[in-house]
Please model this.
Amino acid sequence: MKNSVELPSDWNEIKEKLRRQFSTLTEEDLWMEDGNQDELLGKLEAKLGMPKKEIYDMISQIEKRN
Model:
């Protein structure tokens, strides 16, 4: 994983799929302010108990299915 993470441009679609997959995620959990993707991944890491790399890979897989 790169130091600077770049999430997909269709983030709104992907975050809805994440919310369906993980019912504990809220809109606030998935909010990305000013493109701060590293902070977003940190919040997801804490909430889901998964490493950032695994979360990033999961998001990449969702993006490929779109």
The chain has one domain: 11-65.
